[in-house]
Specification:
Aspartate Aminotransferase, domain 2, globular
Amino acid sequence: MHKKLFIPGPIEVSQEILDAMATPMIGHRMPEYARLHKGVTDKLKKLMFTEDRVFLSTSSAFGAMEGAVRNLVGKRCANFCNGAFSDKWHKVTLSCGKEADPFKVEWGQPITPELVESALSTGKYDAITLIHNETSTGVMSPLPEIAQVLKKYPDVVSIIDTVSSMSALKLPIAELGIDCCVFGVQKAFALPPGLAVFTASERALERAKGIEGRGYYFDFLEFAAADEKDNTPSTPCISQIYAMDRQLDRIFAEGLEKRWQRHLEMAQFMRGWATEHGFGLFADEPYRSLTLTCATNERGVDLAQLKKQLGERGFAFDDGYGKLKGKTFRVAHMGDMQVADLKEITAEMEGLLKGM
Ligand SMILES: Cc1ncc(COP(=O)(O)O)c(C=O)c1O
């Protein structure tokens, strides 16, 4: 039985996208691929409101996240940590042999502009990593306010993970001044995993030129050279790129404003349902994620049991990430989902909770 996915990635993939993945194969050095590549990267630029280079990486998000650190950290990196993925990014930065310091706040808290200011004002850092939407905790940090701080530090290259937020709300990458924005496609894009996207500003590419040990697979300069020919350095995941092309058309056909509004409405519905049914919300307003709700288990429900029973009814549900397992649960509301989908899973949950 297929379980309908309400976990925060991978997300349910529509039949239209699965069909697009079955497009007959082409060679990546054929003109057909260059046309596909240019079409996709142009649409991504439109979606992200940027003219910066946009690169397609055949990897999950962490490939490009590691690549960004390898290419862009010269002196020392400030890793802002407020959940499982940002904590991991700090470890990845160190494992790339980079000097780095973690700036940690409690899980459930956002990264604030004040914290970023206090780190950067030391003058020790030439790069930062920050996760816009911490999927482990359902916290969205205030990126526009943080971007204002970053603008005061032109020598600091900003590497921002928008893995679980890109396309769900307006993120104008150029206006925000983000040097490198990274995301995977199995979250709000509702595509099968395996493709990551990243941008690189002129400043980022200049930085990369002076960095040794960039490796090959994620070398930004290799990506930039290949991009001149609307191509990738290595064989790309062409089927996924066909799927991305189709999904971008669907995104623009819905309309960006409508898409953002739909994500807001889904978030409001799910937060409302959780609190009306005796659960709390892990994040405080205004830092609650638009793409998933992380609810606290105030009712002391056996979440592992709830997950099992929902699974038997055809729903994949998340009973908390890492140290939050059993204490919180997460329901995704992103990609192609509608409020009607949330009504389906919450109706099942209501039925099951009565018997618990
Ligand atoms: C915010 C965030 N960053 C990074 C990752 C890691 O992505 P991947 O497993 O695709 O490398 C995830 C995965 O859930 C995530 O939610």
